[in-house]
Amino acid sequence: MNTSPLQDPLPGTNPPRQDAWLWRLFATGLAFTLFGLGGLALRLIVFPLLRLRGGSADERQQRARVAIAWTFRYFVRFMVFVGILTIDFRGAERLGRPGQMIIANHPSLLDVVFLVGHVAKTNCVVKHALVSNVFTRGPILAAGYISNNESLDMLDQAAQVLRDGQALLVFPEGGRTPRDSMPRFHRGACAIALRGACVITPVVIRMNPRSLTKGEPWYRIPHRRMHYTIHVGPDIDPVKWSSQAPLPIAGRRLNEHLHAYFDTELTDHDNKHSAGT
Question: Which of 49, 88, 117, 266 has a CB 3.0–4.6 Å from the CB of 72, allowing a cystine?
Fold first, then answer.
């Protein structure tokens, strides 16, 4: 659905509730319940059944990733169907190539759901705390996702999966973007990319109105339906950066380039909508 959402309300204002607010509150609670139950169902039912098919560890991981992707895809369709959100995803067909590192900003809780749901066999660097969460531990371990424990071993493991031909999804902020802030990336993502990626592809995620940010409870839903735009940006050749300077310097320069790219994309988008209101 290609629509241009209105801007977020000004701080301190109390805009009128729209888009069947009470229904969206109920539907959001139902969606979170289904998400938790889905994680348990994958762990207790789906993955054990998939393991019965045998195969190598890599084959079992690939089957688990496909199962997670389809679960996320139908979960997104459910949220659209019940009116929680709308989404405009452009360029998804360019994601999931061998050795591709996908770098995305992280404005809300649902970002990983959108991207993993569209790229079935991609590996992913996930927040370390999710590995001990009862609802997410099973899918993470079954899919062989990489826990972000910020160790050198994690960086080596992530670079190796890229060299092995897997695509890898990374949110370099390490958490959700604070409200009224621009993304700020840790350099670890660039260090991984320069050591293992064949290509780097930025993905810009915008949502309006902002919701599901860090520390925000699920029941604090916005005054109107959320609208997401997810646009896949132009590829970046890591060799062009690693060949010009030692890796630490190249990583810093690449990180600065990504900051400038995301800042420009997000700022230009906001300015266009400001001019249109």
Answer: 117
**β pairing state of 199-208 and 226-232:** antiparallel
Q: Is residue 11 part of a domain?
A: no
Give the strands of the sheet with 199-208, arranged side by side.
85-90, 226-232, 199-208, 100-104, 168-170, 123-127, 146-148
pTM attached to this predicted model: 0.89
Total number of domains constituting the chain? 1
- Residue 69 CB: number of other CB atoms within 10 A? 21
Tell me if 139 is assigned to some domain: yes
Q: Give me the tens of pLDDT residue by residue for the chain, a chain 277 residues long.
A: 333 344 555 555 678 898 999 999 999 999 999 998 998 899 899 999 998 888 888 899 999 999 999 999 999 999 999 999 999 999 999 999 999 999 999 999 999 999 999 998 899 999 888 888 877 888 888 999 999 876 778 899 999 999 999 999 999 998 899 888 899 999 999 999 999 999 999 999 999 999 999 888 889 999 999 999 999 999 999 999 999 899 999 999 999 999 999 999 998 755 555 445 4
Contacts of 94 (CB under 8 A, 6+ apart): 201, 232, 235
Residue 156 counted as domain residue? yes
In a 10 Å sphere around its CB, with 0-12 CB exposed, 13-18 middle and 19+ buried, how is residue 272 labelled?
exposed
Residue 226: strand, helix, or coil? strand
Say which CATH number the domain at 111 has.
3.40.1130
Inside any domain, residue 2: no
What's the domain range around 139?
A: 21-275
Dist CA 114 CA 110 (whole Å): 6
Backbone angles phi, psi at 216, to 5 degrees: -95, 125
Tokens for 25? Answer: 């509150």
